[in-house]
Design goal:
Blueprint (H helix, E strand, L loop, with lengths): L10 E16 L5 E17 L3 E5 L6 H8 L7 E6 L2 E2 L5 H7 L3 E4 L13 H11 L5 H14 L16 H13 L5 E5 L7 H18 L2 E5 L3 H7 L2 E6 L2 E7 H6 L4 H8 L9 H5 L28 H8 L11 E4 L2 E3 L5
Parallel strand pairs: 3-8, 3-9, 6-7, 7-8
Antiparallel strand pairs: 1-2, 1-4, 4-5, 9-10, 10-12, 11-12
Helix pairs in contact: 3-4, 3-5, 4-5
């Protein structure tokens, strides 16, 4: 598979030490703060202009929460999110509303993200009205143009969401995100609720729009095959932390973190009789994912890691007590593991 186009070196989004904790309270009348659910716990990465950064991990690892915290739909507990020189965590009210024109989101569930009481024209046209970009006839023409861009009949503007299929609804959601001409879009598992036959169409549409409009994506998913197809770089997340980040070709050819190795070992190859498929060693993880309200003291992955004893023998480090640093071990390859 050929690598995608080279991206510019400038950074459009910089996330540093991002934390999103949800408080746990006890008591009915007088509620006490007794702990936190650490959904996102110290995540740092950069996204280059024009690229697609894939964010993968199993359900509940904090992927969607990361995307929402970047866009300030959740106000982060700690950390910084810099977008084109503006610190989003410092913005409030009108300033943040103005910035939302440049940062948008495509939601996971096309059945829940569209207001059933609004027509398609109202749904797609609402961002134009909020940001005062178009009104009246100009707004109507812009909505029809957006529907045509995403592959829908422009004359569907008076229909309601229940009249469309899941794939068509997701196209409406994409049109809404594009209405304000954003530079950066968080795609929160945009195809996971769609039929397999429709997923490829939506992925191809997102790639075409990126090429046409110069968009930058944070693509959140749990389907490794899809992420490999659309992403330039891939970040792997486990229990609220990043464990590995590198280019897609490097990640699939040389995964370093034991969790990444386990994930990739479960991906079937197209030809089951191929030599690579026969020689591939399956990594079966034992136990369950710890609770984000009570993560392990050292490495988050230490309770399930098959390389635990190897780290102790080779490095003399107890992964149960020492947390690994997320660092660059090779050019552009970041890993949080004591083995490197």
């Amino acid at each position: 598979m050929l690598e995608k186009k080279n991206v510019e070196s400038d950074i459009i989004v910089s996330v540093q030490n991002l934390k999103m904790y949800f408080p746990i309270t006890s008591g009915i009348i007088f509620q006490r703060h007794v702990g936190d659910i650490k959904a996102v716990d110290g995540v740092s990465f950069d996204i280059q202009r024009g690229e697609t950064l894939g964010l993968v991990g199993e359900s509940g690892c904090g992927k969607s929460t990361t995307g929402r915290a970047i866009l300030q739909l959740y106000r982060p507990t700690d950390g910084t999110v810099n977008f084109e020189g503006s610190e989003l965590t410092d913005l409030k009210g009108g300033e943040l509303r103005k910035m939302r024109r440049h940062i948008q989101m495509i939601f996971q569930d096309p059945y829940a993200s569209l207001n059933p009481r609004m027509t398609v024209g109202s749904i797609v046209g609402e961002p134009l009205e909020v940001h005062r970009l178009a009104s009246g006839k100009a707004r109507k023409e812009r909505v029809r143009e957006l529907l045509d861009i995403v592959g829908l009949n422009p004359y569907f503007i008076n229909r309601y969401p229940h009249e469309f299929s899941g794939g068509q609804r997701q196209r409406i959601g994409i049109a809404r995100a594009l209405a304000v001409e954003p530079a950066f879009i968080v795609c929160d598992e945009p195809i996971s609720a769609l039929d397999v036959s429709i997923q490829a169409q939506v992925i191809n549409l997102l790639e075409e729009l990126q090429e046409r409009m110069g968009l930058t994506y944070l693509f959140i998913a749990h389907d490794l095959a899809v992420v490999r197809h659309i992403s330039d770089r891939i970040a792997v997340m486990y229990l609220g932390k990043l464990v590995e980040l590198t280019g897609r070709a490097e990640l699939y050819a040389q995964p370093m973190h034991p969790y990444t190795q386990a994930l990739l070992s479960a991906v079937p190859l197209p030809d089951p009789l191929a030599e690579m498929e026969r020689e591939k060693k399956r990594v079966i993880l034992q136990g369950d994912v710890p609770s984000p309200s009570n993560p392990p003291q050292g490495c988050n992955f230490c309770t399930r890691c098959p390389s635990l004893e190897r780290a102790k023998q080779e490095k003399g480090i107890d992964c149960h007590t020492v947390e690994p640093e997320f660092r660059e071990v090779e050019s552009g390859h970041w890993v949080a593991c004591h083995l490197y």
